[in-house]
Amino acid sequence: MEHIRLPKVENVKLVDRVSPRRSRVGTLYLTATHSIFVESEAGVRNETWVLHSLVCSVEKQAAAASGCSLLIHCKNFQVLHFVIPRERECHDVHLSLQRLSQPESYVELYCFSYKPNVGEVERRQEWDLLDLKADYSRMGVPNSLWKLSPINRHYKVSDTYPADLFVPESAAPPVIVGSSKFRSRGRFPTLSYYSKDNHAAICRSSQPLSGFSARCLEDEQMLEAILRSNPRSDFMYVVDTRPKLNAIANRAAGKGYENEDNYSNIKFQFIGIENIHVMRNSQQKMLEVCELRSPSMSDFLEGLESSGWLKHIKAVLDAGIFIAKAVAEEAVSVLVHCSDGWDRTAQVCSVACVLLDPYYRTLRGLMVLIERDWVSFGHKFSHRCNHLVGDPKEVSPIIDQFLECVWQLMEQFPCAFEFNERFLIAIHGHIYSCLYGNFIGNNQRERIELGVRERTHSLWSYLWMNRADFINPLYRPDHSQTQGLLRPSTAPYCFKFWRGLYNHFDRGMHPRQSVEDYLQAIQEETQQLHDQLASHKQKIGKLEQEQVWRVTQKTTTLDKSPTAWALGNDLTVANTPQDYTGDFISSSPCQPKAPESSLILLPHDLNQKSEANLSNGSDQESGIADLSCRSPLSEDSTRDPDSDEAAYSAA
Amino acid sequence: MNIKLIKYGVMEFAELIKTPRVDGVVLHRPFLPTVEGTLCLTGHHLILSSRQDNTEELWLLHSNIDSIEKRFVGSLGSIIVKCKDLRVIQLDIPGMEECLNISSSVEALSTLDSVSLMYPFFYRPMFEVIEDGWNSFLPEEVFKDLESMTDEWRLSEVNKDFSVCPSYPPLVAVPKDVDDDTLRKVASFRHSGRFPVLSYYHKKNGMVMMRAGQPLTGTNGRRCKEDEKLINATLRPGKRGYIIDTRTINVAQQAKARGGGFESEANYPQWRRIHKTIERANVLQEGLIKLVEACNDQSHSMDRWLSKLEASNWQTHVKEILTTACLAAQCIDREGASVLVHGTEGTDSTLQVTSLAQIILDPACRTIRGFQGLVEREWLQAGHPFQQRCAQSAFSNNKSRQEAPVFLLFLDCVWQILRQFPCSFEFSESFLVLLFEHAYASQFGTFLGNGAAGRAKLSLPEKTVSLWSWVNRPQELERLTNPLYEANSLVIWPSVAPQSLLLWEGVFLRWNRSSKCLDEAYEEMVHIIEYNKELQNKVNSLRRQLAQLETEDPLLQTP
After folding, report:
1. Which of A119, A354, A549, B182 is 20 to 30 Å apart from A244, CA to CA?
2. Residues in CB range of B389: below 8 A, 6 or more apart
3. Are A125 and A453 in contact (CB under 8 A)?
4. B278 at A interface, C-beta within 8 A
5. B272 touches chain A (CB under 8 A)
6. Do B520 and A415 touch (CB under 8 A)?
7. Which residue in chain A has the smallest CA separation from B492?
8. Are residues B79 and B187 in the same domain?
9. Within a domain: residue B515?
10. Are residues B454 and B344 in the same domain?
11. Residue in A74, A90, A203, A338 annotated catalytic
């Protein structure tokens, strides 16, 4: 609490970025974990909560007559613009938030103090929901070709790798250790995914320390062993996911890539995915485009193009497709690496798994996949997601790109995924929120030292408990789209801008009726109908029996539950006009003062189904449905003092 | 008479068809296996039937062909046929002479000058006409609805012989207090005689939307008291109205030099004029050509795709048109003001705006029948020159300045609203695609001709079948119905943010990518809804059975 210089500021304005006239005035509270804005209009209980750990940057602008502006960018792409009357106060809030949003040590993170109403026994059980060993045995390992190696039990061989690793049956410990010494950070080639059907495997590692001419017999033997673990194949692919130039540059630093001449029967392939710095800048540019105030179509499309974001998404997906096809169609094993093998390698391996195996397209499967390819294999979440104050050059939206690749696939294969877009957005939010321990730290060893299993809650369990919110109504396990390898198109026009994530909080941009919610409601009703059908059948059977036997017994009272079931309001939702005119509208009297609650964003109370509200669901409560029913001559269009006509002629 | 015409037609066509039949032709279509078969040319169709079972694999109207290219590799010739519905197919034709003959015949047959030689004049329906579409949306019937709401308007016959305004229908709704003489004077002050007429009456508050051609003020600021009187007659005492000029102020200023212009503040003090930026026809056509070219680019480069998409400006047009329509709707519904919309002629951008504003405001226009009525009222009877605008599509090299995807842009905008309110439309996307196809090439007469007078001369109701006759049959309606529809009586305000406006894949990427997975998703959605209905019926019938059992049971009836 010592970081809070000012716990409460009154008369703060929360500016609506899209239409400034919808701005609201209220009180801003700073607590140990959240900033809370409470609208002060009588009769409205409207709160906006922002978790400090989600704050990405706080920017104080020069003081103006109306007050001093504070711009808060969040890691979940929410942008809040406060205007604080006095500069002094703004300064204090600014400094407080800057400190609060940049914890210096892990213990400061919210997950270590977050105490939802869950008992200790249940909390422990949360962490048992996912079991990676079970996933490996689902894949069919260990078997006669792959074995579980105890070699990294104490993180001695590679401190960023998990303790449990699968290696080829023929790989003896000296080979593994030798190979690990020839790889960056000791990240030797190890199993990521094994295809039971044809024995092809996806393996991953970091780059070899080959420099210009170095060789390592054990590393060559290691690859040989991987090749032999796929008995029917006489070669394997080695995929370097970096652009060739980057890989060549690494040779000067004693690193580099495999020389085809030194390894027997490998086919070496570069797939140019850019590095974390390029990706960080690209997303930054795209977000600037998303934040433009009333951009023209050209502003938007030009900005999207020059950000390069979709190009990078396509590169990741292309690489995933290459690997998935090698495994599924050629039955050839693939070794994937980049530099350290925890960014691009994680992306590409996990995208390939989503394409290859229907299991990873289920709710549980995606969680397992992230747990395996990202969490256990040491994607540096705390560095990449800026959980603690640290080197800004380490920050990069690598996991965002993976989630977006999954979303792009969902757009092409609407029936193939058990989960919906909300699920991806919920995962994204919590990777950054630090509410759960899953993504704290940079590798398994660090998480054990931090005791996340002992001291924090697990996101997977939370998501699983609320899975009803995350189910895709179009999914059917027996649907043809659900089976086997996905073959997406990678024509550029198949890639779309992910409005649902990057403009998540700009509610006005989203469709006002959701087909998915509609279908979900229908399915719920169908379930109820099933129950009624059964109960009616039972009663009829009983009655018929009674009539036959003339049993003089009164039947139970009729089930009077209504079958006539109405869809929720959200499906007939109306809305309000937005800015169609530029200048004209900013002084138009017709902007309604809609109470809007959807800004409340991060789950401050997990017992509520807050994730569901992260997306369009929260519209219902905003009361906007009433507004468009109002007569056009209602107060909001007549009493407004700004209803000057001058603006029209100016337009 | 009809037989004569057909005979004349057949003779005419016979001269054009040099080779009526070629065997061993191979057809290539996107996402379908190649087919070998016999190619036949008839007066109106290009037909390919495969040898095996003589089924028609391809049945293409010549009028659907936008351009045709020849390629030769040795003696094997290929023609690449690019259609107005944006499909591209390839036919490999053995024999150089055959290929040349086919190609020149198709070229001639697909560019016939005479309207009366078009297929709709030869087409005989193979289906039972339940309701003659030519009588489905008569102005006098539509006016009856208006009369039930207000008595401030009358149906004028001033244009009954098309002498006042050739592009207007014989009957138009005008303010009750304005007589026909006044209308004639106003017509002489408006472009092409298009005096202000009623387009839409907003029942909720009695406000109206009118449309017209630009006023002919010229450089010396001519005025017309009758014009002022006419439009002022639609205002409530003390209220203002809005004039939405679809052109920028600069374009409107320049129009003065050519005798056109806009309403000045001095002469129309009760009206506020707002200028918007909807592009003119030839710019839109250029946009369509560029967009389709971008969609067919095979380079697989993301940068190239995005920059071409941007350069086509198509999405910009969509945004501008939608924004203007929203503004008009906002003035009516939120400001409680009447609106007059015009551009230059009042036959293109004006109609985009007035028809879209009605989609936003009026739930009736979001039904299948209501939408047909809207297209009939605001496009066909309102004088949009379909034949000129839809003569060519995206592939033609013809440099005629008349073509423009004005109607396609309107449909695109409707699709955008449909995407944002997927449960508020009775029709599905396939209805919009169908209208796009038939506007460009059709067996029906609905979209033939230019303007009311031109259409009347063609005697379309007597000589052709209406598209609506075909659509308004149960089996067809079922195909076009949106399974998600729940009548929504509210005004629907779409978002016009660039992030909210999508490329209409159903038209522009239709032939470029397999739609199998999306079709399956649609079927799955239908299945979920159908299954729910089925269960509902079962539960209801069981409930009835239960109730019956209970009443039959004498023991239960005793109190």
Report:
1. A354
2. B281, B348, B402, B403, B404, B405, B406, B407
3. no
4. no
5. yes
6. yes
7. A574
8. no
9. no
10. yes
11. A338
Same domain, B207 and B310: yes
Tokens 């003081």 found at: A63
Edge-to-edge strand list for the sheet holding A266-270: A190-194, A201-205, A334-337, A236-240, A266-270
B532–A629: do the CB atoms touch at under 8 Å? Answer: no
B500 touches chain A (CB under 8 A): yes
Domain extent at residue B83 = 14-112
Name the nearest CA neighbour of B291 among B178, B408, B192, B190. Answer: B408
Asked about A290 being catalytic, the answer comes back as no
The reply to whether B80 and B223 lie within a common domain is no
Residue type (1 letter), A266: I
CATH code (residue B28): 2.30.29.30
Which of B95, B112, B129 is at the close of a domain? B112
Of B322, B271, B185, nearest to A580 by C-alpha is: B322
Q: Are residues B144 and B250 part of one domain?
A: yes
pLDDT in tens, chain B (559 residues): 343 444 445 567 888 898 999 999 999 998 888 999 999 999 999 999 886 666 668 999 999 999 999 999 887 899 999 999 999 999 999 988 999 999 999 999 998 888 889 999 999 998 999 999 999 999 999 999 999 999 999 999 999 999 999 999 999 999 999 999 999 999 999 999 999 999 999 999 999 999 999 999 999 999 999 999 999 999 998 899 999 999 999 999 999 999 999 999 999 999 999 999 999 988 999 999 999 999 999 888 999 999 999 999 999 999 999 999 999 999 999 999 999 999 999 999 999 999 999 999 999 999 999 999 999 999 999 999 999 999 999 998 776 779 999 999 999 999 999 999 999 999 999 999 999 999 999 999 999 999 999 999 999 999 999 999 999 999 999 999 999 999 999 999 999 999 999 999 999 999 998 899 999 999 999 999 999 999 999 999 999 988 888 887 655 554 4
Token duo for residue B555: 């023991």
Contacts 24+ apart (CB under 8 A), A601-604: A601/A48, A601/A49, A601/A50, A601/A74, A601/A76, A601/A78, A601/A505, A602/A34, A602/A49, A602/A50, A602/A51, A602/A54, A602/A76, A602/A429, A602/A433, A602/A435, A603/A435, A604/A34, A604/A49, A604/A51
Please tell me the distance in Å from A476's CA to the nearest CA on chain B. Answer: 9
Cβ of residue A503 closer than 8 Å to a chain B Cβ: yes
Q: Which positions in chain B touch A555 (Cβ < 8 Å)?
A: 550, 556
Q: Both B254 and B190 in a single domain?
A: yes
pTM of model > 0.95: no
The ipTM estimated for the assembled molecules is: 0.94
Is B549 domain-assigned? Answer: no
Give A548→chain B minimum CA distance, Å.
Answer: 10
B210 belongs to a structural domain: yes
| CA dihedral sign of residues B444, B449, B453, B458 | negative
Check if A295 contacts B (Cβ < 8 Å).
Answer: yes
B108 & B143 share domain: no
Q: Is there a single domain that holds both residue B153 and residue B32? A: no
Side by side, which strands form the sheet with A34-39? Answer: A47-51, A34-39, A24-30, A8-15, A79-84, A68-74, A55-60
Q: Which tokens hold the place of B4? A: 């004569």
Does residue B129 fall inside a structural domain?
Answer: no
